[in-house]
Amino acid sequence: MRTGVQSFACPRCRRGEFRSLPGPGGKAFCPWCGDTVAASSISGSVPADEAPSEAFSLVDIAEQIAGRAPKAPAPAAPPSPDQEARLADSERRRELAETELRKEQEKRQEIKKAVLEEMGRLEAELAEAKARIRRKDEEHGSALETLNLLLQAKQQEWEGERMKLRDEVEQKEKARRALEVKHEERQKSASELQGVLDASRAELAKLHAEAAAAGAERTELRRKLSAADAKLQPLKDAATQLRDLQKQLQESRTKAAGLQTDVEKRDQRIKELQLLIKTLGERLNDLADRRWPTPNPPS
Predict the structure, then answer these.
(1) Can you give the pTM of this predicted structure?
(2) Domain residues of the chain, as ranges?
(3) CATH architecture of 123-288
């Protein structure tokens, strides 16, 4: 396995090649997206004993973060012991910085995963709330339609019975008036027909009996009319229930409006989470830029 500085190219973000020491398995972390990538087959590795000077290593790392290709190192004299110590120190600091950058990238992946889970949960709650509102509206609409049909049927039935009873009352009233007219005629002829007084009295008694029967029939018709009014009472109760259901529907619509407000608040929260993800990405990029500054070359 090669242990020197190697060139890598990320196939995911495709922002160019970067140079880094290989980690476990000969792979390195991409400085832009954080994925592990294998060494590029085009560029070779630089052995550890032929590592460049401190200035060249730091410049290459800064250019890796900025997304530019590293410049070719200028030929330099053999490193002195002081330069080798500085190179070892810079390599140690670079490894520490890479370790810290990996931790930051892992934290960012965890935050991204948590945000995606939260967004999925909120979307599921939103879909459930919309489905619940739709079911409530359908149930109330069906109940109102059923009540309207029942009320119309009862009203038509009551109107038919009332018209029938009214016709019967009118017929009996006409018969009663005819009997009264006949009775009056008989009374007028009584003075003229003294000879037929007994027959007239008998006829009068008969007319009285018929009037009594007509009165009894009128009483029966009034009783039927009262029964019809009693049948009308359930319709009035149904109208009262309809008003109660309309009130409940208004309350349900008010609750639906409250649920819609909650949905809008959750949408706003999702937008804030997306803005937070964007801000975290920018902060991570700024942190990477601050951790890999471009040093001045040694004199």
Answers:
(1) 0.24
(2) 6-117, 123-288
(3) Orthogonal Bundle (1.10)
